[in-house]
């Protein structure tokens, strides 16, 4: 686990006086990963231009993404993932955005249905929790470390939690890890996160193209059946 004193500092830096641990509150002070916001704006612009009737459903999902509730995913998300929870969430959202973008003009009804579905209930939290689980498992299988252990190493580096060290758009600089072995682990973490994000693209794309056919696969991915 990440040391308690380090977690306290990182939590104070992220949350300030707020105990709201939604995506917007936790990540609003941090610089987003490269091209993340640009991709969201592009998708919104494209929907507005080509399928304006779907825009209310997209806006609903985008608002829901801001309000993603980390407390439904983990009892202490900051202790487990630290600042990494923000780029992880953004890579996950990037996958959703690209999945939407690939099917904007193919089926308006299916697109609207999928956007409404993703924005409903706790579907988004379940989806993200499944994404995190797969990244975490892949990381542990390849390195023998948990992500919280990687953070523990990072916290030992002087200046790790200073504001100026967390504003870069690159996850590597975000952690400021320069030792060879840890650098290798960070490469593994980044690659696994991006690879799983590509899987999110395919899941959302398939869900829009054939919602009834792929809804079962989607629910299996998020563990819906197992928890019913």
UniProtKB/TrEMBL annotation:
Top-rank taxon: Archaea
Protein name (Swiss-Prot/TrEMBL): Uncharacterized protein
Record organism: Nanobsidianus stetteri
Organism placement in taxonomy: Archaea, Nanobdellota, Candidatus Nanoarchaeia, Nanoarchaeales, Nanopusillaceae
């Amino acid at each position: 686990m990440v040391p308690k004193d380090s977690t306290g500092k990182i939590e104070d830096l992220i949350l300030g006086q707020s105990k709201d641990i939604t995506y917007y509150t936790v990540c609003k002070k941090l610089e987003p990963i490269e091209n993340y916001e640009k991709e969201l704006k592009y998708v919104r612009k494209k929907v507005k231009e080509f399928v304006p009737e779907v825009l209310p459903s997209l806006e609903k999902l985008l608002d829901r993404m801001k309000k993603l509730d980390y407390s439904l995913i983990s009892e202490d998300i900051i202790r487990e993932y630290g600042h990494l929870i923000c780029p992880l969430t953004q890579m996950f959202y990037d996958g959703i955005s690209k999945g939407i973008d690939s099917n904007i003009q193919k089926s308006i009804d299916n697109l609207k249905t999928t956007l409404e579905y993703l924005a409903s209930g706790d579907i988004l939290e379940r989806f993200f929790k499944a994404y995190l689980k797969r990244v975490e498992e892949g990381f542990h299988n390849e390195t023998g470390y948990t992500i919280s252990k990687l953070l523990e190493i990072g916290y030992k580096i002087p200046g790790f939690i200073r504001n100026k060290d967390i504003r870069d758009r690159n996850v590597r600089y975000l952690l400021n890890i320069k030792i060879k072995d840890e650098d290798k682990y960070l490469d593994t973490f980044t690659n696994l996160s991006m690879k799983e994000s590509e899987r999110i693209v395919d899941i959302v794309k398939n869900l829009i193209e054939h919602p009834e056919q792929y809804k079962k696969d989607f629910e299996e991915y998020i563990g819906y059946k197992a928890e019913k």
